[in-house]
Amino acid sequence: MKSRDYYLQLLNDNVKNPKMIAHSLASEAVMRALARRFGEDEEVWGLAGLLHDIDVENTHGDSMRHGPEGAALLRSEGLPPEAVDAVLMHNEKAAPAERSTLFQHALAAGETITGLIFAVALVYPDKKISSVKTKSVVKRMKEKLFAASVNRDAIMECEKTGIPINDFAELALKSLSEVEHTLQLTS
Question: How far is it between the farthest Cα atoms of the chain?
Fold first, then answer.
C-alpha cells in the first residue's frame, strides 16, 4: 500500500471540484473515526473514505460506471482489496450485489452523512460544522425535503454496523469538527 500523500495526490489528479475534495476529506475523517471505534485499520478505512469518489468526474455522473471505475483504478494503484471492495460497493446502483460487510456499510453511511452535516452547517449563522448539534442532524434526517439528494437509507446503514443514528451523527460531527479547517465549507 502506498502512502496517504500518494493517494491524496492521485485524488487531486482525478478530482478538481473543491466541494468534492472537501467531501472526500470529510469522508476520510468519518471513516478513520469508525475504524477506531471498530478496532479496524484506520489507514485503510481512511483511504477508502478519501478515495471512494475518485472516479466521479471521469464518469461524468454516470451512476452505472461510478464505483466500478474507481475500484479498478484503485486496485491498479495498490489499495488493499477490502478498501477497493468498499469503494466498489458504496454506490448501490452500480454495485454487483447488496452491501453485506461492516466496511461496506460503514463507508456507505459514513460518506453519505457528510453531505447532510454540510447542509445543516450551511443553515447555521456561522456556517461552522463545530456549531452543529447532534440533535439538529437527527432532526434533519427526518425532513425529506431538506438536503433532498442525501440518501437517508444509506445513512441508516449505520445501524447495520451496530451504531444507533444518534451516536453515529455524534461520531461524524466530532470527526468533521476536527478537520473543519481543511474543508472550506461554502454555500
Answer: 44
